[in-house]
Predict the structure.
Amino acid sequence: MKKLYATIFLAFIFLNSFAQVWSNIGSGAQNTTGDYPAVYSMLVFNDELYVAGCFTSIKGVPASYIAKFDGTNWSPVGDGFYHTGNSSIMYSGVKALAVFNGELYAGGVMDRSGSTPIYNVAKWDGTSWQPVGNLASGSSVLSLCVFNNELYAGGFIYGHHSIVKWNGSAWLSLGGGMQDSIGLPALVRDMRVFDNKLYIGGQFYTGGGVQSRNLITFDGLHFAAIGSGAIGEYGITKLGEYNNNLIITGGFTDVNGIPFNNIAQFDRTTWTTFSTGAGYPGGYSFDVQPVITYNNSMYVGGYMSNAGPVSVNGIARWDGTSWMGVGSGHNGVIGSMAVYHDELYVGGNFTIAGGIPALNIAKLKDGTLDINEADNNSSLNVYPNPFSTEATIQTKTNFQNATLTVVDCYGQIVRQIKNLSGNTLIFSREELAAGIYMVQLTLESKVIAGGKIVITEK
């Protein structure tokens, strides 16, 4: 009995802290043109969530490459964008968003908005998209960043060795730009301002003639190496922050001579790791991608099956001490994340999130299953509770084609029962261990009731 009490006490703490619920965004982000469908970038601007990528509709609303959400409705942003065919190295779509001088900028692989020619970077004037400069055809902009009140663009940019700065009328090269080991243009994947420097990550050998593999800094005038850089086949994919430290992710095994596994943090003095890192055993080179802070935890996405010793599916959570999964995760690749109205939105290329259908975009809500927050209108009546073998779960109103989801103390979905109708269910314990579990009843991905069950030793 003492063992059960301990289990219940720990589960109570975990459930109040970590309970999480995935839900889809209706029919998701779809693409009917035959291009690779994906959500590449998200940004909150003027209390609206902007979502960009390669899609033609989101939640059934026509929107070409970019859409916005005001908390209630999705809508297109002007005429959006289009690209005539794919570039030689990158799929079409909007890959980066940024706010500069109070205006929204978009970068990627696109050549027009409606009938207006666009040269991979555009500015939203409140009514329509306007071109920003004229980058060479075939270029791909993967990152936009504001540093020292100037707008920088990085990617694979012809004629500029992949990184440029906007002077208000034209794009300017930065020294010799980014080059590979034989002096050819290399690739910038992400940029971030940290400690009054512009950190640049990607797949390159030098920046401005300074050797520093895949990771380098720029102070506005000069490039500076970070030791030997980040060594790995795929280099750096994303830069972020957590607990005031710089976070780098990608496909690398070494930073400045220190062994790492695809993720590392920098406190302005020292590089350190998170447990044993994250990735996909067997060597997928683009393992870890976006990183974001949500409710005091760090979330990372990508193409990965493990985070430290924990098995995950495409997304993991670091609570400051250890790694854990996020429900049953995703079945594809996560490429972007944003927090909007206390919910974590994730985008990429996938069809399932947390065990439910979700096409390329989904959202996660912390605390939805808090056992202290069930009210009289939405709570489930469970009896007996606690139980050892089976219990009756009942709602106050009838439902049709609902799904019952059972979540353990680590936020993992341990059982789902679908296509339920009526208002009563006989729930069998089966293989579930003793402890406290949260249960929720959902209809079309909306939570309609929730509660807790307590299973005792047989």
